Amino acid sequence: MVKGKPVPPVPSTLITKIETVEQTYYISENREHQTPVGDEAIIEIMGTIEQIDLRHKRHLHRSMEITLVCSRSFFGEDRTPPSDKPFLLPVQLRKDRCSVMAYLPADAFWALPPMITSGSITHVEVRFGPSRCGSAELLSIYLLPKSKLSSV
């Protein structure tokens, strides 16, 4: 019998309907550190999980918090490097909280609020790897209109 590589697990998917959106912006100065000025803009989306795979069905119809962030650090004397590097944090599917967070490039981040408020984007699809102790690797976030929904 020939042994092959183990088959990777199939990613899980959930779809959340957007219900509320809040935006915040923060800038600060800290002269004691290498990055004297930094800022952070945040889009906080609250919604309800409308679709989820069978493995995680206990979370169906629960609230989901999706946080999208754009963050930069500013150095003096034209030394400010570009900081538009996306960064995905783990999905949390726990009894007390369902959430996900991602850092986005500035151009994508600032394009989202008008699409959400106009109704062009109504749902968020989250794909993630196997969960362990209520946490899983985030593989993708897809913001989409209702017309693009497929069943999980």
Protein traits:
152 residues; mainly beta; seven-stranded mixed beta barrel; 1 helix; 8% helix; 51% strand; globular
Question: Quick summary of this structure?
Answer:
This protein is mainly beta. The protein is built from 1 helix and 8 strands; from the N terminus they run E-E-E-E-E-E-H-E-E.
Give structural notes:
With 152 residues, the chain is mainly beta. The chain has one domain (12-148). The protein has one helix and eight strands; from the N terminus they run E-E-E-E-E-E-H-E-E. It has one helix spanning 106-117, and strands spanning 12-29, 37-52, 63-74, 87-88, 91-93, 98-103, 123-132, 135-144. A seven-stranded mixed β-barrel has the order 1-2-3-6-5-8-7. Strand 1 and strand 2 form a beta hairpin. The chain is globular, with a radius of gyration of 18 Å. The protein starts with 11 loop residues before the first strand and ends in an 8-residue tail after the last strand. The mean pLDDT is 88.
What is the percent of helical residues?
Answer: under 10%
Q: Given the C-alpha coordinates, what overall shape results?
A: globular
Strand order of the largest sheet: 1-2-3-6-5-8-7
Q: Roughly what is the average pLDDT, rounded to an integer?
A: 88
Number of strands: 8
Strand content: over 45%
Low-confidence stretches: none
* Helix run count: 1
Provide the succession of SSEs. EEEEEEHEE
Q: Number of folding domains?
A: 1
Structural class: mainly beta
Q: Sheet bearing the most strands, described? A: 7 strands, mixed, barrel
- Radius of gyration from the CA trace? 18 Å
Cα(first) to Cα(last) distance is: 35 Å
